[in-house]
Amino acid sequence: MVAQPDDPPLIAARGLTKHFGDFTAVDGIDVEVRRGEAFGFLGPNGAGKSSTMRMIGCVSPPSGGTLRVLGMDPITHGSQIRGRLGVVPQRDTLDEELTVRENILVYGRYFGLPRSVIRERATELLEFAQLSERADELVEPLSGGMKRRLTIARSLVNEPELLMLDEPTTGLDPQARHALWDRLFRLKRSGVTLVLTTHYMDEAEQLCDRLVVMDGGRIVAEGSPRQLISEHSTREVLELRLATDDHELYEAKVSDLATRVEVLPDRLLLYTDDGDAAAKIVHERGLAPLSTLVRRATLEDVFLHLTGRTLID
Amino acid sequence: MWNRALAHWLAHYRRVWRGTIISGILQPLFFLLAMGMGLGTLVDAGTSGGIEGVDYLLFLAPGILAAQAMQTAVFESTFPVLGAIKWQRQYHAMLAAPLGIPDIVLGHLVFVMMRVAMTSTIFVTIATLFGAITSWWVLLALPVAVLTGLAFAAPVVAFAARQRNESGFNMLFRFIVLPMFLFSGTFFPVEQLPTALELIARITPLWHAVELCRGLALETMTLAGAAAHVAYLVVLAGIGIQLALMSVRKRLIL
Ligand SMILES: Nc1ncnc2c1ncn2[C@@H]1O[C@H](COP(=O)(O)OP(=O)(O)O)[C@@H](O)[C@H]1O
Ligand SMILES: [Mg+2]
């Protein structure tokens, strides 16, 4: 299912814009998603990720620009497009008074699928989501992670070509997140095109072939996680915690050791291709840091560099 | 595609029907017992001998049929609608699938009509067993009850879709539904009211519904009278549906 260059994109947005009153939530973004890709929108809260996802999901009309999803215009063909999408919205829309299985059965009916087909798929999907044991229990008492898995299972009932996941793992504990990532990997391997939003850089790095970094309704960078890191960051980062309330005071004392230095409230980040060497010099200069940590650069660093802010505050 | 939205509400109802039994069936039955048999005995023993020469129980039963249609419809169009928008958000799930606003609204209204048909049928059956309904014409009062349900449900869906929380519903029940229940002819002829109130009572939808049901159950309805009442309810339902479509669209499509 690797995309051919002449394959039409599943999503093509040009100058896509969304206003709420005089507030601009999405400010003229260009996006192309090709078949078989796992594509991410990475950005902090309020970046405009959900607004974009809802426009692509044909439940929110764009205020400007052009948008084509599966080659069709959401304004005129919203229903047809939605019939071929799977949608995992940021906030669950499960019917908590129904059982786990009933939620899938009813959702399948929305797509006009025959009952026998839905029943069969429901059993498979519950297996896939590791919910078979809870199939006939009510949704309400399930954990957040289980509800999220159910929402994902449900979104697959129409065998969508394109799966849209808005913050699929936000609010879940690490274990539940890894369980979900595992399911998403399997989907990706089976050829489903994934579009997801996240403000977790590790999630973006794990899951996305390509992503855009969004901030304030705009796209500030685009590429594969690796590309973005090599373009906007050094290979390694040295984190320094010093015995001070104001790390800014120390910036000048280390700025020559790194390509770039970021000052955070509780530490300094030194961007350098050789963190250990820099750390050694820091010690030699007698700066006596409380702790030093050398790590690989991540998308978090890219984001910090591009926007001057961290992803999760 | 509205039938797909209906499928959801039917599945949902299979899970929650027990809770609806009290309000849907027992309550009108209690009214029938307390008012019809308790109060009715006094009324029938009075100088007029019943109301307009009719046993009070026979007078009351079709009134309760209409009032129950209103209550069922209003209840099913308030909390479930706001819940489907705000709490459990089932409307959003439908909208993410191929369903559109008309499917969502129509599917829900048809479900409400089915609920009204259910409670009405059960009530008519029980009232007949009690001897509170004696005419086969009451069979025509069943579709009237369903139409009444739609005439109330549609504008109430429009109202519910504009609410931020459930406090508006208390107002609706207290200042619209309850007064109509008490003063629109369910328990006594509106002619008993002071003229000004009688005029107000006669423009309420419940009065038209009560008159229709009672006229059919007591075999006193004329064709012209029936046509006027039906027309009133149909127009109200039509306007209500338009308003419901507008409100739900405005709330869901941002
Ligand atoms: N329906 C709405 N009305 C007004 N403002 C909105 C609405 N939806 C989103 N916004 C605003 O648009 C901005 C982007 O929101 P959103 O797309 O949800 O961002 P994200 O998903 O990246 O957190 C936020 O500032 C948010 O408050
Ligand atoms: Mg969001």
User: What is the CATH superfamily of the largest domain in chain A?
Assistant: P-loop containing nucleotide triphosphate hydrolases
Spatial separation of the terminal alpha carbons of chain A:
38 Å
Shape field of chain A: globular
Instruction: Write down the domain tally of chain A.
Output: 2
Helix proportion of chain B: over 70%
Strand order of the largest sheet of chain A: 5-6-7-3-8-9
Number of strands of chain B: 0
**Which range does the strand content of chain B fall in?**
under 5%
Q: What best-fitting shape of chain B do the alpha-carbon axes yield?
A: elongated
CATH class of the largest domain in chain A: Alpha Beta
Structural commentary:
The complex is a heterodimer of chains A (313) and B (254). Chain A folds into two domains: 11-224, Rossmann fold; 234-296, 2-Layer Sandwich (Alpha-Beta Plaits), CATH 3.30.70. Chain A is 35% helix and 26% strand. Chain A contains eleven helices and 13 strands. In chain A, the strands form three sheets. Chain A has a six-stranded mixed beta sheet, with helices on both faces. In chain A, helix 8 crosses helix 11 (299-307). The longest helix of chain A is centred in the middle third of the chain and has 16 residues, at 174-189. The mean pLDDT of chain A is 92. In chain B, 80% of the residues lie in helices and 0% in strands. Chain B contains nine helices and no strands. Chain A binds chain B through residues 20, 54, 57, 59-61, 78-80, 82-83, 85, 87, 89, 91-99, 102, 105-107, 109-112, 138, 158, and chain B through 1, 4-5, 7-8, 11-12, 15-16, 88-90, 92-100, 252-254. The structure holds adenosine-5'-diphosphate (ADP) and magnesium ion. Magnesium ion (MG) binds next to helix 1 of chain A. Chain B: Belongs to the ABC-2 integral membrane protein family. Chain B: It is a multi-pass membrane protein.
